[in-house]
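re: the backbone from monday

yeah here it is again, tokenized this time
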């Protein structure tokens, strides 16, 4: 039995197979409409979510399966003090596969160690968000045609942003990838990621503060929001939240074929006027998320069509 805690749980070859399957699902959805008939997905979301939770649910429903679960810790027995270990043991009696989001880093790993069904990490604190990474890889590969030979700008909250951390881990395995890390000093990529992932894999990167300085050189711009829930005080959040706003004027500095991605939700870091630009693909990205989660569910359940 396999779980998904990190993008590195799959080899590059396994990832390619999942992305190929997701593309086939996109092109031939009718083939997969009953693939999970009789199977149940449990969504255990101890933290608020719109896209991730609903895209998991949509994925399982599209496969002909059913869904059960909770959308906040307050509506689960966690409010009574039940441990993650006990919860997953119980859920294993009810469902065939589980997606878990938790504010504490490592909680899905604890669940996986006690579970008798596959567990998918749907986000744990500021640590990892592997299914968002699979979504990002599918978006890039489908729209750019490759995952190598790319200059990628990561902009915004690079300190607490689990989507950014997961994406860096995944992309360093592809040749000729380089990063431009765009953030204020207070929100830079943690040193352990720079040392243990970028430096260790000899991946070139530079850190800049101004978005305008990076834009002309990018194949991809990955915007992130400054996450209020990760800050210890309101004052720091207010000071940081409007540090980067991508608008039409700034976008004029970018190449004509650059893609703008965002894991969503956005607050105001991308102006709504950018939505009409063909380079803005963040809503397509959300759609790709359903296909890739369908492919992941099939893979972890060992179902082949």
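seq for it, each position gets an aa:
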């Amino acid at each position: 039995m396999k779980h998904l805690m990190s993008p590195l749980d799959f080899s590059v070859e396994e990832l390619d197979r999942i992305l190929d399957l997701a593309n086939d699902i996109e092109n031939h959805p009718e083939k997969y409409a009953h693939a999970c008939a009789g199977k149940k997905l449990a969504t255990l979301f101890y933290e608020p979510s719109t896209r991730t939770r609903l895209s998991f649910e949509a994925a399982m429903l599209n496969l002909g399966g059913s869904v059960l679960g909770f959308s906040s810790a307050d509506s689960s027995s966690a409010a009574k003090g039940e441990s993650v270990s006990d919860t997953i043991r119980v859920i294993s009696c009810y469902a065939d596969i589980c997606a878990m989001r938790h504010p504490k880093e490592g909680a899905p790993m604890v669940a996986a160690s006690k579970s008798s069904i596959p567990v998918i990490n749907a986000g744990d604190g500021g640590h990892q968000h592997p299914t968002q990474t699979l979504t990002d890889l599918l978006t890039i590969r489908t729209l750019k045609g490759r995952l190598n030979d790319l200059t990628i700008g990561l902009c915004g909250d690079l300190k607490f942003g689990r989507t950014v951390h997961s994406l860096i881990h995944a992309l360093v395995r592809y040749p000729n990838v380089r990063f431009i890390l765009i953030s204020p000093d207070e929100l830079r990529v943690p040193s352990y990621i720079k040392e243990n992932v970028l430096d260790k894999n000899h991946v070139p990167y530079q850190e800049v503060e101004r978005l305008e300085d990076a834009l002309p050189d990018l194949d991809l711009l990955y915007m992130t929001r400054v996450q209020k829930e990760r800050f210890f005080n309101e004052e720091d959040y207010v000071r940081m939240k409007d540090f980067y706003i991508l608008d039409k004027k700034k976008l004029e500095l970018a190449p004509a074929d650059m893609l703008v991605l965002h894991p969503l939700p956005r607050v105001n870091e991308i102006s709504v006027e950018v939505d009409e630009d063909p380079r803005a693909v963040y809503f397509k990205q959300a759609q790709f998320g359903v296909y890739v989660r369908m492919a992941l569910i099939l893979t972890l359940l060992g179902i082949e069509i």
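The mean pLDDT is 91. The first helix runs from residue 12 to 27.
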